[in-house]
Amino acid sequence: MLAVLTFIVRRSLWTVVVMFVITVVVFFIFFKTPGVDPARALAGRDPSPQVLAEVRQQLGLNRPLWIQYGIMMKKIFITRNLVSYSDQGELIIPEIFAAAPITLSLVFGASVIWVVAAIVMGVAAARLRGTIYDPVLMILALIGLSTPVFWLGQVVILITQVKLHSSIFSWVQLGYTPLTQSPVKWFEGLIFPWITLSILYIGLYARVLRANLLEVQNEDYVRTARAKGLSERRVLLRHTLRTSMITFLSLFGLDFGALVGGGAILTEVVFGIHGVGFLTWESLTNLDLPTIMAVVIYGAFFIVLANALVDVAYAWIDPRVRPT
Amino acid sequence: MTEPLLDIRNLSVTFRTEDGLVRAVDGVSATLQQGETLGIVGESGSGKSVTMMTVMRLITDPNATFEGEVYYKGVDLLALPQDQIRSIRGAGISMIFQDPMTSLNPVYKVGWQIAEQIREHEKISKQGARARAIELLTSVGIPNAAERVDNYPHEFSGGMRQRVMIAMAISCNPDVLIADEPTTALDVTIQAQILKLIRKLKSDYGTAVVLITHDMGVVADMADRIAVMYAGRIVEQGTQRELFYDPQHPYTWGLLGSIARLDRPRPRRLAAIPGQPPSLMRLPAGCAFAERCAYRFDACETQQPQLLDRLGTGHLDACLLSEQRKHAIRTRTVEPELVEETP
Amino acid sequence: MAAIAEQVSTTELRPAAAGRNPWALAWRRLRSNRIALAALGLFILIVVVCLAAPLYAHDLAHIGNPLSPNLNGTTVANGKVVPIMQEGGGILHLGETPIGPTWSLGHYFLGADGLGRDVASLVLYGGRASLQIGLASAVICCVVATVFALIAGFFGGLTDTILSRIMDIVWSFPVILLAICIATVLLTQPNGVKVGFLTIYATSLWVPTFIIALIYVPYVYRPVRGQVLSVVQKEFVEASIAQGASNFRLIFSEILPNVISTVIVLLPLITATNILTESALSYLSVGVQPPNVSWGTIIADGQDLLYTRPWVSLAPGIMIVLTVLALNVLGDGVRDALDPRAKLRVK
Ligand SMILES: Nc1ncnc2c1ncn2[C@@H]1O[C@H](COP(=O)(O)OP(=O)(O)OP(=O)(O)O)[C@@H](O)[C@H]1O
Ligand SMILES: [Mg+2]
């Protein structure tokens, strides 16, 4: 028990360190890139001299570096009153928090699809090894892996909204409706974004899982399981797949974190879903750097947190690395 | 003689590889009687594991082809459909492997793994299977079995894990236990304990054992009959007495090497024979051992020796040398010149 | 005789012979891998076609500058001279719509984009930018990562710890956000960024190249460092140390040759990833900047025309899929050839 505690404490400490370093790195990118004037960068597109002066004053840009850093962090985490200069002084942090559930809806639905589909595909390919189906499945996976998600989104829009909109896809209303408002609309609006977002991950995970299954299949303990007289099905599900899931799940945690932390931006932009990613993109087109900075820091925090959770979960699903 | 428990007839296994066909097992025939221990010895790569894995139908390589028959209680295992071979694996014939460190699934408790096998073959409750697992662990000499049953494999030492493997293998009272180098990965004192355990099981339950090993000393202790394999074939087969006191094949002489000498400690490994075994892809037309044999003559290069009962006593060997010649060689030197002491 | 007919696969045979020259063996395996060869052929074809962009634009289509707007031009479709920007058209029959694909080479084959430019020429020129950025950033990324990995793995200790921790931190950034961060900061500086004596302009292709190279360094660093560590532990390096070889010589003549195969396996895969990343950044308007075009920017511009002129988006997207797919297949082939039991995996 004590070992578990020290493990968690150590992991948490490292998490805090990484988060600190991330804020420092982001701070330096925005405030200290050689040759870049931070006031000019943060003040939005073509700022007036008054705005520039205001930015300088509000962010303490004439004061020592560490005070600048402190002011920034205070505005992001404590007072949460960082404002966007291109967006009429809109408060940024509440905006991010309002967008987060939308991103979560998108990523959550997609992840359900990709986990199920990837397991089916990976297991099928591994089982059908030596037949033509295995390479066919893997080429499909590779195509999924090679398709830019935003372009795929456009193709999906083209099919559902233009080409086949009057026939089979007339029910599709792309866009976000809160789940609490109408579960059916929520589902109808998100199903195609989910599929679009999941294609890449289906390809990736199916390949990883297949490779892992084939690797584990050669392990001695799988031979032992067969020698025990277990059915092929049981050998596959309880022995081969069970150990392969260790890699699979840890990858999943990281990707889920990365998507919620901002990685879903492309899908959100192409479908016009107003999540955190879309917010970032809007800020991009306005060169609204304070918003970008805040989103990046919050996104990175989420990812770091997900990484830490994955490590703890890893110890939970793999007894070998469990601290004793 | 009663009908043998296990009857391997003219078994061959061929693998297709990038560089051509590998004939890993070539026309092997052997029998195992009820309660008997058959030792299989031979250098690394001689096909011992592939033979016994084929008996269990555990070779999953899609590039393998099998010929011959393996009768177990009158049924040809090689012709059985998957679901029937499953009821034999683990219950009729079970197997333990060389490396106990990797043979148990790292993510399950050992008790669970033993119970899983019992529940596969018998109608028994979860608690019942667990109780049996504890019993079995106790019987293979694991102290504190009631607690250890809930440990994971990585919490056991190598010797202990091999005991767990043995407990698992005997959990359904098999007729045949195949032990593939059960002690190779363990250190010497543990080796002796594991062998003692296997011998005890044999006498307690009357299980027939196939013992694969590199160690002539081990077969001398354990085996009733011995088969010597070389390059996928059996080159000599006989009772333990016959093999040790009247070896017929120059390869066996080489293996026995210094074991015959009473003035030296027994070497653990097979004596080193100079030279390499031939590539299984390009086996010579004649005797596979000829290249390394100090007593070869012209016929060895062209004529493939058959495994025959040349003495008329049931002691088989595959060497073309005449009986007189063998006798002459063996009276001239107890220890054939081709054998060099391992340092 | 009972022969069990197991399913026989013609691929994935195990090597039986060991100890031959691994490069010769790898080359032989790659040559016998038809799918990988086809992928290599496809990739080379795409590169050649994109390099031939001026040939198409100037000599076949007679376009002066394919990147400049051409709102008042005309072209030939079905034997008739037609304006490039057509009145009405589209679903709502409002405003101007660029001409759609004529499917006639040299005459707005794939139609025009919102600025009246020839999409076919744009795709070829955009391909040059995308391929250049993808390949250059992959090479830079691999070189930088390998140098760091060699240093970290060879010297070990504190050097290793510090380098690896830095990589961990870069790793924990969301790649695309990190790229966005750097790109936006650079884009707010209209007069370019001065680094020492060097001035980088925001519109230069080198900006996305360097950004992409940087963010993927940890992805190459990790596997290569692992490889370096295992090589360093092998005896032959110890033997060389005993002979008093210099560190420099050791790293480059003893260790590098043994880890280079890992890098070679990663190179096509990283190139594929980088081309995808470039297109994503360009789609978000923080990658390639006007007046340059890349596949990603064309797709971004095509978004507005999706309902009326889908080929503006479809064409560059298909090119990306083909290129990246070819590189991924090739990467798999190279990996299988060099190390059939490889544990290397790249996202
Ligand atoms: N799947 C396979 N594909 C190709 N060749 C194989 C395969 N499995 C085994 N072999 C070859 O078959 C031969 C016999 O192997 P086997 O494992 O039976 O040897 P062994 O006598 O058990 O040796 P050891 O004492 O080292 O365990 C070896 O040369 C091996 O390379
Ligand atoms: Mg073996």
Summarize the structure.
The complex is a heterotrimer of chains A (324), B (343) and C (347). With 324 residues, chain A is mostly helical.
Could you tell me how far the N terminus lies from the C terminus of chain C, measured between alpha carbons in angstroms? 49 Å
Shape of chain C: elongated
Strand order of the largest sheet of chain C: 1-2
The CATH topology annotation of chain A reads as: MetI-like fold
Please tally the helical runs of chain C, counting DSSP H or I stretches of 4 or more residues. 12
In quaternary terms, these chains amount to heterotrimer
Q: What is the fourth-level CATH superfamily of chain A?
A: MetI-like
Quick one: CATH class of one domain in chain C?
Mainly Alpha
Strand order of the largest sheet of chain A: 1-2
Please state the CA-atom Rg of chain A, rounded to the nearest Å.
Answer: 24 Å
Describe what this molecule looks like in 3D.
The complex is a heterotrimer of chains A (324), B (343) and C (347). Chain A is mostly helical and 324 residues long. Chain A has a single domain (92-321), classed as MetI-like (MetI-like fold, Orthogonal Bundle). Chain A has helices at residues 2-32, 38-42, 49-58, 65-78, 92-127, 133-146, 149-163, 183-217, 220-227, 232-263, 265-271, 276-285, 289-317; strands at residues 83-84, 90-91. In chain A, a hairpin with a 5-residue loop joins strand 1 (83-84) and strand 2 (90-91). In chain A, helix 9 (220-227) packs antiparallel against helix 10 and helix 10 packs antiparallel against helix 13. The radius of gyration of chain A is 24 Å and the shape is globular. Chain A starts with a helix and ends in a 7-residue tail after the last helix. Chain B is of the alpha/beta class and 343 residues long. In chain B, 33% of the residues lie in helices and 21% in strands. Chain B has 13 helices and eleven strands. Chain B has helices at residues 48-55, 82-88, 100-103, 110-121, 126-139, 145-148, 158-169, 188-205, 216-222, 240-245, 250-256, 298-302, 323-332; strands spanning 6-17, 20-32, 37-41, 64-72, 75-76, 93-96, 176-180, 208-213, 225-230, 233-239, 316-317. In chain B, the strands form two sheets. A seven-stranded mixed β-sheet of chain B has the order 6-7-8-3-9-10-11, sandwiched between helices. Helices cover 60% and strands 6% of the residues of chain C. In chain C, strand 5 (193-195) and strand 6 form a beta hairpin. In chain C, the strands form three sheets. A two-stranded antiparallel ribbon of chain C has the order 1-2. Chain C is elongated, with a radius of gyration of 25 Å. With 347 residues, chain C is mainly alpha-helical. Chain C is built from twelve helices and six strands. The interface between A and B is medium-sized, with 27 and 31 residues.
